[in-house]
Specification:
The structure is a homodimer.
Chain A (H helix, E strand, L loop, with lengths): L3 E11 L2 E8 L5 E2 L2 E3 L5 H13 L6 E8 L6 E8 L15 E6 L10 H16 L12 E2 L1 H12 L5 H11 L2 E8 L7 E6 L3 H5 L21
Parallel strand pairs in A: 1-6
Antiparallel strand pairs in A: 1-2, 1-4, 2-3, 2-7, 5-6, 8-10, 9-10
The structure holds a DNA duplex.
DNA sequence: TCAAAAGTGTTTCTCTTACACCCATGT
DNA sequence: ACATGGGTGTAAGAGAAACACTTTTGA
């Protein structure tokens, strides 16, 4: 008999900073939202735990990894999610004292394994951002290319040429113009865009057999 | 209380065909090697199950995905492995009647979910082969570039120009010459190579911020 | 000497990179 | 008017794709 739990790594970008969602139970340290799994399906349970403990619902969860844990929970199935912080107000659940966003580079003391899970989620986010347009999930319904650009820079922790970025994003067809503009402070008003979401997968262009071999062997969890 | 199990998807390439390792218990249909997890670590238990049921040991396992299952096992953590079939003789374990390699495109009836897990493993293999030199695991200690070429073609299910392939593999530095040659039937003898394995990760070249955005959104398991 | 497989080099073209300038607004 | 962020275009270079020929063996 093994105890199974789900753990949620919900990330956002604010003020050019990557942050993760943490909860605190009375008398306990900060931790990832997490809960025991009984009969339910893993993904179902993960949504439920997130909703119950933080008030967030209706977002995409992606299974990240299953970790060995000690304590009562022996196997923790982690889920990763990306959201725009201001689209989802936080509401601490019943047995939760506080919910808050916490910068990745300034984490408090956490239960064993949680920091590792967060680090792995961060790595995966970075890796996937490089080849899939998932970063739009971190922005509101409509956004400017400047905002998207900033999010990419934060995630990849690199400077991206704004002009090339714009060209590539538009060429990739992952966003569409919304028609309106936004003016905020000085500077020319920026056009607003929205993600094309799933329709886009269909349009997806085949890539040649180009990248068939690569120089990078991503270290993953292996065992002899 | 939830029952946790591990399932192993071990793949090989033979005669230009992708095959997966299946086992059969007395009175049961064919299935992936699998076993219950009790107190052990997941990866440890996965190695053990593989060894006990098929006689194979000492290979790299990569965690693939955790699936919901019905029956007694409610959560199945799957592991993916690539090996050269002829390097590992099969030895059916105690409660196993038969072990065999089975072509992916001609699977027998399997327990619910197993076919899906195999399909997902296949997809992952294909995707990862495109950017990481994992295919060498499917070959013996030493091999010719012709053999490696063939393995790539089988996995990617595409024709790769032999000359460009050779150039790129050598440039990537993932293999090194062994010095000897092999002659088999007519044709010029082929030089033998070996994988540079892990030393190679260090040499790994940084790639520019090139592939920052892409046209492909790999569909993954999501939930609302 | 012929068939079969291994190995080498070159040209073309696309995509990435790097970079300089104009536009529209708030103050 | 000027500072600030938004938007457009282009030229140079690297890398991918396509391709033709020589070499070495067994039969």
């Amino acid at each position: 008999m093994t105890q199974v739990g789900v753990e949620l790594i919900v990330m956002t970008v604010r003020q050019r900073d990557l942050e993760v969602l943490l909860v605190r139970r009375p008398g306990n340290e900060w931790a990832l939202p997490s809960g025991r799994v009984r009969g339910e399906h893993l993904a179902t349970r993960a949504s439920e735990v997130l909703n119950t403990q933080t008030g967030i619902s209706g977002i995409r969860l992606e299974q990240l990894f299953s970790f060995d844990r000690d304590g009562t929970t022996q196997v923790a199935v982690t889920y990763l999610a990306l959201i725009a912080a201001d689209r989802y107000p936080l509401a601490p659940g019943d047995d939760i004292v506080e919910v808050r966003w916490c910068p990745l580079d300034d984490l408090p003391s956490l239960p064993p394994g949680h920091a590792g899970a967060i680090a792995y989620g961060h790595e995966r986010l970075r890796a996937k951002t490089a080849y899939a347009p998932i970063a739009v999930q971190l922005l509101p319904e409509t956004f400017t290319l400047g905002e998207l650009h900033e999010v990419y820079e934060v995630i990849l922790d690199a400077q991206l040429d704004a002009r090339n970025f714009r060209r590539d994003v538009l060429a990739a067809g992952v966003v569409e113009e919304v028609g309106t503009e936004r003016r905020s402070g000085p500077g020319r008003p920026a056009r607003l865009y929205r993600s094309r979401g799933s329709e886009f997968a269909v349009i997806a262009q085949e890539r040649g057999p180009a990248e068939r071999i690569s120089r990078l062997d991503v270290p993953t969890q292996h065992t002899e």
